[in-house]
Amino acid sequence: MSASSTTYNAQESLFHRSGRHSRREMLRNASNGFGLTALSSLLADRAYAGLSDGVIQHHPATAKSVIFCFMAGGVSHVDSFDPKSALEKHDGQSVGDLSREKKSQNNGSRTWMKSPWKFRPYGESGIPVSELFPHTGGCIDDIAVVRSMVAELPLHAAGNLFMHTGRLRAGSPSMGSWITYGLGSENRNLPGYVLLENGKVPPGGRENYANGYLPADFQATPIRAKGVPVENIVPVGSSRDVQRAKLDFLLTQDRDFSAAFGGTDDSIESAIRNYEMAYLMQSSVPDLLDLSGETLSTRQMYGVESEDEQLRLYGTQCLRARRLVEQGVRFVEITANPLNMSVGSWDQHENLKANHERNAFVVDQPIAALITDLKHRGLLRDTLILFAGEMGRTPHTENGDGRDHHVGGFSVWLAGGGVKGGTVHGVTDELGMHSVEGIVSVFDLHATILHLLGLDHERLTYRYGGRDMSLTDVHGRVIHEIIG
User: Fold this and answer.
1) In which band, very low, low, confident or very high, does the pLDDT at 29 lie, cut at 50, 70 and 90?
2) Domain residue spans in the chain?
3) Higher-confidence residue: 254 or 422?
4) What is the mean pLDDT of residues 42-68?
5) Can you tell me the mean pLDDT for 5-31?
6) What is the pLDDT of residues 278-316, one digit of tens each?
7) In the prediction, which pLDDT does 31 show?
8) What CATH class has 25-482?
């Protein structure tokens, strides 16, 4: 590994090369019992092990945490944040020969389709936003809209994996895993990476949130919106002492097994850290997820008191996201409610108007409340919010009622965490087909997020398969134009 790389096990590797013992070997050999289990747990936390933020960050950070509002299926950019008057002019006209178009689905006879929604300028910046997102429009002066995103393949599973991991295939760490690996957690009683899910895993599966080849304790911890948030977090009929005894017995077995193989198996050490985290979460998570202590006005602002179940569930997760970053969680992802869609809530090949309106109704108010609440509490400057799907949707249609997959140009937005609010970056052509100015790749987006967190995307690496792996591989440019 290069000297400039940031690695979780760099210090322990130095111990082994010098013939000295790692801290975990010292603990195992120095203790006949598990009186030092608590100390071992503390040392497993990077903040207590001398690997805290200030030591490993590559440059000053403007953000401490990330909240990723993932819109699976693909929000239509020409119906949300990228208005195209040319579509009104050419509405219903034949698109013509699309044989050279490789960034969208284009089979059959297609016609241009204007947006069913009006746009109007919001805020002092005057950035136009669709009437689909009136609440978000009210926060536009805190938002940087990127209109020139491009991706690789117009396929849901590959697109989801690409947006999360920078790879088209499963097996690589997610962005949340990389960030937690780089920065650790500010709260030893909570995981660094939390997934707030809403009933269905989008295409690409759990690999979207997995640790890949990083140690297992960097994978996402899921918390459900409906039903029991986390299974077995407070075992029925078991006291804390009984749970501690069970855990100590399990740790004894794992450590003995690890010792038999030289004590260097990181997968076992990761499992031990996960056991300890689960135990610590029992005392912190139930209270954290209980929203009854929030004021009525706050719950109403997020939509938690709404009669609409889907709005209520999504609002609950957005409010939980605020509480999680408030407690030091590094990366929180909120998935979009499934809303009876098989491959993503926003995947409207038909019934565009009804379904996009339904989706926007569910997410618009809670996300705007999240921005407003964080700002009011002085947390927005430290918290980066990302609103993105895996792709956009075609400016043309095959059936006159829906839009298909499109990765040649689409929109995402960021807010807080050092982002320059009230700005627009990048341009698509007059019909919204292609990004033509300030083109931003997924690698660029990832590089920018890491940069805002104080991490250099070229230096945040992990040795795997004989090479130094990174989130952005050999790609990525920081989008300095949207940084305040």
Assistant:
1) very low
2) 25-482
3) 422
4) 65
5) 42
6) 656 665 677 888 999 999 999 999 999 999 999 999 999
7) 41
8) alpha beta
Q: Region 256-268: what's the mean pLDDT?
A: 64
Q: Of residues 483 and 258, which shows the higher confidence score?
A: 483
Residue matched to tokens 């499934």 = 338
